[in-house]
Amino acid sequence: MCVSLPVTIFRWAFQPARSANLQHLARCQDRRAGGEPSDGWRGWKPSLQEAETTTQQQSASTVRMNTSFLVVRFQIAGTGRIAYPGEEGTVKEIDISHHVKEGFEKADPSQFELLKVLGQGSYGKVFLVRKTKGSDTGQLYAMKVLKKATLKVRDRVRSKMERDILAEVNHPFIVKLHYAFQTEGKLYLILDFLRGGDLFSRLSKEVMFTEEDVKFYLAELALALDHLHGLGIIYRDLKPENILLDEEGHIKITDFGLSKEAIDHDKRAYSFCGTIEYMAPEVVNRRGHTQSADWWSFGVLMFEMLTGSLPFQGKDRKETMALILKAKLGMPQFLSMEAQSLLRALFKRNPCNRLGAGIDGVEEIKRHPFFVTIDWNKLYRKEIKPPFKPAVGRPEDTFHFDPEFTARTPTDSPGVPPSANAHHLFRGFSFVASSLVQEPSQQDLHKATVHPIVQQLHGNNIHFTDGYEIKEDIGVGSYSVCKRCVHKATEAEYAVKIIDKSKRDPSEEIEILLRYGQHPNIITLKDVYDDGKFVYLVMELMRGGELLDRILRQRYFSEREASDVLRTITKTMDYLHSQGVVHRDLKPSNILYMDESGNPESIRICDFGFAKQLRAENGLLMTPCYTANFVAPEVLKRQGYDAACDIWSLGTLLYTMLAGFTPFANGPDDTPEEILARIGSGKYALSGGNWDSISDAAKDVVSKMLHVDPHQRLTAVQVLKHPWIVNREYLSQNQLSRQDVHLVKGAMAATYFALNRTPQAPRLEPVLSSNLAQRRGMKRLTSTRL
User: Which residues does UniProt assign to the signal peptide (predicted)?
Assistant: First the structure.
């Protein structure tokens, strides 16, 4: 009789989590849980999918492979049993040469330029590489290099049918293998390079996701699992570490080292493998499992993403397994009824009752009310915008990878072959993805070398001064200094902001610039260096100078021109506010011209050192479309206050542009107390001087942007819809008078000095302080295979 999992309802409580800027660890293939396994798998750290031969054939067998692990079984001739490296007998050749198009050049290590080390373990290394020859010249890949000497295999599982996973697994949400080749001592696998990190990184930083986030990730994941299941493959190692994000925020699952095809007439597998906390009960009790085991793990992942905790976790492996087999599940009350219903349907201890295990398979999951808003066809075509876009810069940037590895010089030694027989084992290992077996056009070759987001500047240089020559100061702040610099290779000029990490954490500023720097009126981040003590942010050089400088020195400046300037800046702030970003330091010195043209379109918003992205109390990064349901009112109130402060700053700038002097300071000698008192009173002149010739619409928009009550202040959207902006072509073009430039700038500086005398924000704690890292024993969960 099938038994359902009992559920206990209780109230869930959270402690505010300390956010940490966790970097993606590329070495998560190094999988040991609780020490060495008991059956002699000492030191085994493969990195490709299993390749098996049948026990019925004595001829060369077809490799069954996917993008992460290679476990090779070969048969002793005439014995019908599996042979392992070192055993006596005839070793059969693994032949996948039928995948290489006739006449097309096979890949080899010389065709790949080593850029950075992404990860390293006893099995070998993972490099970021750039292809230097062929139709994909300039393309970036992740290259896994495996030492043949480490490929020791023991496993009792046989394959009843052969399937070429390498050729079949081609799916938008599964990491793709592009090439495979070998040298005498090593195997090389060329895979997709995913720059967005993994879900573990995001979950560790943000503690938990919204239901909308989870719905999106689970939906894409369901399509990927269904594709594998359709090929007869059980994934068996579903967890956040194995789900990567591309630069747009779509998922790709990786690490197929524990995946298996079903091997008996009931389509069951019997290995005890996976990550303990994610194992289905039938995997734990070793009575055989089917693809239904993946849907249990799917539920564990859903629970963890929604709550920040695992549903079953004891103080050790034994207790965890006991909980999986027998414990009641505590269902958090804050989850929606649809989410609770899906979790109950997935957490059935009898796999025959589990959602997704029926004859309709994944269609059962697609039909569940939790996914009612998902358009599955659009999802597959990647037409649904992901809820989170990773902060990425240049295509070869590795912000989400461990600097312990990325700081190393990338080198690949030849490697020593383990034995002659073992070398023969890998004959015919070469593979070229079918999508690459096409003659390149000149247009394609050009496109392959163009990287639109952040230009390629430093090549293989590691230290900032290797690639740049530092020139004179441009500006000096409390936590940083800005200098002009020259790129040595191109002689191009840039500005570099050098931030003292001991005084300010630059991670938020970098994320914002990477994520939103493509906007035409936000300064573009060109390069990032980190030497441990200082961070170097290389940006566009603003040759046009500060906005206020140019306006005050301009011979003719009219009300119409002021409207054009304000419209450009407000449109930029509307974009940032709509993304949940507030600048919080929008003083005139942080608004600059890119060039000497004076064109409003050349304006750039700079210096995001005080900027913030919308986050809940627990550090969860939010987007505004989810705030109403998932962010505490006081957080929204603070975010709204910060956005209103940005508008107030724009109001101060507009007042100064129109009046020719600042609204709340008479000069640089005014005390902070005097300035703050004037700001608090909300009193400023709108008559006399220039104001006598300025339109009523201008006075109206200024008064509403400078309203003392932030709740009554205009929003960016409302400013853009104000008649003074909409009907700007009818505004006066008469010249406006102004005070001395130095007097006005001094008064403005005094105003912001008074406003910014606030306590310094707390620094972020190290990543190991995060709740998720502590829950997992300060390391990523590792997979077990017995």
Answer: none
